[in-house]
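Quick review question:
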C-alpha cells in the first residue's frame, strides 16, 4: 500500500467531535450517494457514540493502474485532544510494482472538506491560525512579522514565501493555498520594503522574486524552487506531510483489572520478581503490537477481497445477461437480425464502449442483415474494454488481447488506406480528428474503433460495409 496524500490536525476542543463527523458524512453523501453505491466501491464506516474512534474507509478501482484508490478519514477522541487524520492510498489488486513517487492532489470536494475541518478546528501554529488564506506582507512591519514567524521555534508547518514584486502574476495563488491547507502556510511579499525588512530581521537573503522559498520548521535548511509553476512545490510538501503522519492506534483502550494473587515472597527475591514483571510487560506490549499490525493487514486484505468478489459478481451477471440475449436470438430468428437493431441494442446494454454518432448513422445506412454477428463481437469488445478500464492489463497490450479474444481482428489498416482514404476512417473525438484503425471483420460488415489511451475509452467509430483500402480500384 502506498500513501499518496496525508493530512492531520488536532485540537483540544473535543466538543467539535459531532460537527466533524457531520462534515465527513456530508462529504460521503455528496461523493457517494446511497442510491449510486455498488459493491465495486466498498465503504466501511465505524461510528458509535460510545466509541472514541470514528472512521470512514472507501475503496475505488483505479482504471489507470492495477490498484484500488483508498480514502480513509479517522477521528480519534483521546484524553487530551480531538485528532483528525485523512489519507489517500493506492492499494495493489494484483502482483505489480507501483511507482513510489505517486502523489495525489485532493479533488475539489475533498479539498472543500479539508478546508471545512481546518476552519472548524481553528488551530494555531506559532500563534498564527492555520487556514487556506495567503498572508500578504506589503510594508516594513509585516515583513518583519513574517520573518519573526519564520524563525519561531514553536512553528510546526513549513512556510512557502513568494516575492511578487515585478511579477505579472503570482505562481502560488489561491489554488495553491487551498491544495496545501493544513500542510503549509502561504505568504506573499508584495513590496521591496517588506522584502528588505524580512531579510534584515531574518539575517540572511533567502527570499527573492527569482525563486520561491520553503522555510521548513525546526531549523531545517530553507529550500528554493525556480520552476514557473507550483507542481513540484506542492508535490514536495504533500510528500513531507505524508512522511510526518503518525501511526494510528485504532483499538479502544480498556481498563484491565489485575487478579488478586496471594503469594509469599521473600524480601531478597523482590527485585528479581519486579524485573521479571517488567520484562513480561515489554513482551506483552510487543505481542499486542504484532497483533494490531496483523489485524490491520487482514482488514486491508478483506477489503480488497470484497472488491475483487464484486468484480467477479459483476462479470457473472453480465455473462448471464449476454447468455439470455443469445438464447432469445435462437428463439426468434428475426431477433436483432438487422445491423441497425443490433447496434441500437448494444448502445443500451454495453456500457464499457462508447458509440460515436457516426457508428450509429453508418449502421443505419448500410442496411446489412448480419446483426447477430455484429452484436456478438461488440459484446466481446465491451468485455475487453471493461477489463482494460479495471486495470487487468496495460493499455499498450490491448490489441494483443483483442487478437486473442476476437476472431478476424486487425490491429490497423494498410498504409495505402491511411494515406489515400484517411477521411473514411477519421472521426472527431474531443476536438481532434483521429483515425479508427483497429477493426473487426464480420462478413460483409466491419466494426472500426478507436482506443483513447489517455482515458482508456474504446470508441466504436464505424459499423457498416467495407471501407476503401488498397483493394479499392
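Suggested answer, residue by residue:
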Amino acid at each position: 500500500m502506498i500513501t499518496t496524500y496525508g493530512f492531520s490536525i488536532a485540537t483540544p476542543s473535543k466538543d467539535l467531535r459531532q460537527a466533524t463527523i457531520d462534515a465527513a458524512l456530508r462529504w460521503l453523501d455528496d461523493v457517494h450517494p446511497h442510491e449510486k453505491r455498488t459493491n465495486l466501491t466498498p465503504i466501511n464506516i465505524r461510528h458509535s457514540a460510545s466509541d472514541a474512534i470514528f472512521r470512514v474507509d472507501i475503496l475505488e478501482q483505479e482504471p489507470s493502474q492495477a490498484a484500488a484508490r483508498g480514502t480513509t478519514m479517522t477521528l480519534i477522541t483521546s484524553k487530551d485532544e480531538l485528532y483528525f487524520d485523512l489519507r489517500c492510498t493506492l492499494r495493489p489488486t494484483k502482483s505489480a510494482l507501483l511507482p513510489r513517487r505517486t502523489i495525489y492532489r485532493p479533488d475539489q470536494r475533498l479539498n472543500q472538506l479539508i478546508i471545512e475541518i481546518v476552519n472548524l478546528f481553528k488551530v494555531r501554529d506559532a500563534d498564527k491560525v492555520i487556514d487556506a488564506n495567503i498572508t500578504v506582507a506589503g510594508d516594513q512591519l509585516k515583513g518583519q512579522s513574517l520573518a519573526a514567524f519564520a524563525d519561531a521555534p514553536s512553528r510546526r508547518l513549513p512556510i512557502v514565501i513568494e516575492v511578487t514584486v515585478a511579477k505579472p502574476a503570482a505562481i502560488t495563488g489561491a489554488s495553491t493555498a487551498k491544495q496545501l491547507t493544513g500542510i503549509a502556510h502561504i505568504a506573499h511579499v508584495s513590496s521591496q520594503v517588506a522584502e528588505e525588512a524580512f531579510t534584515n530581521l531574518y539575517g540572511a537573503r533567502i527570499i527573492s522574486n527569482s525563486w520561491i522559498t520553503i522555510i521548513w520548521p525546526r531549523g531545517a535548511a530553507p529550500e528554493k524552487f525556480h520552476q514557473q509553476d507550483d507542481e513540484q512545490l506542492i508535490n514536495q510538501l504533500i510528500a513531507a506531510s505524508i512522511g510526518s503522519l503518525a501511526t494510528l492506534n485504532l483499538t479502544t483502550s480498556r481498563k484491565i483489572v489485575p487478579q488478586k494473587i496471594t503469594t509469599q515472597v521473600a524480601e531478597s527475591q523482590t527485585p528479581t520478581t519486579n524485573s521479571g514483571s517488567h520484562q513480561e510487560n515489554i513482551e506483552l506490549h510487543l505481542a499486542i503490537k504484532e497483533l494490531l499490525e496483523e489485524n490491520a493487514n487482514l482488514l486491508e486484505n478483506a477489503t480488497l477481497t470484497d472488491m475483487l468478489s464484486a468484480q467477479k459478481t459483476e462479470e457473472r451477471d453480465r455473462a448471464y445477461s449476454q447468455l439470455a440475449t443469445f438464447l432469445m436470438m435462437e428463439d426468434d430468428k428475426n431477433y436483432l437480425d438487422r445491423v441497425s437493431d443490433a447496434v441500437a441494442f448494444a448502445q443500451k446494454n454495453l456500457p464499457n464502449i462508447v458509440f460515436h454518432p457516426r457508428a450509429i448513422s453508418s449502421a443505419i445506412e448500410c442496411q446489412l442483415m448480419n446483426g447477430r454477428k455484429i452484436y456478438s463481437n461488440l459484446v466481446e469488445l465491451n468485455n475487453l474494454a471493461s477489463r482494460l478500464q479495471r486495470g487487468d492489463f496495460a493499455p499498450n497490450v490491448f490489441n494483443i488481447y483483442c487478437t486473442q479474444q476476437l476472431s478476424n481482428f486487425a490491429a490497423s489498416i494498410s498504409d495505402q488506406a491511411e494515406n489515400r482514404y484517411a477521411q473514411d476512417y477519421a472521426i472527431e473525438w474531443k476536438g481532434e480528428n483521429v483515425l479508427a484503425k483497429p477493426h473487426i471483420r464480420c462478413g460483409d460488415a466491419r466494426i472500426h474503433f478507436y482506443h483513447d489511451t489517455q482515458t482508456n475509452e474504446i470508441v466504436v467509430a464505424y459499423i457498416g460495409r467495407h471501407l476503401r483500402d488498397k483493394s479499392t480500384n
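Why it works: Residues 259-331 form one domain. The CA atoms of residues 165 and 384 lie 55 Å apart.
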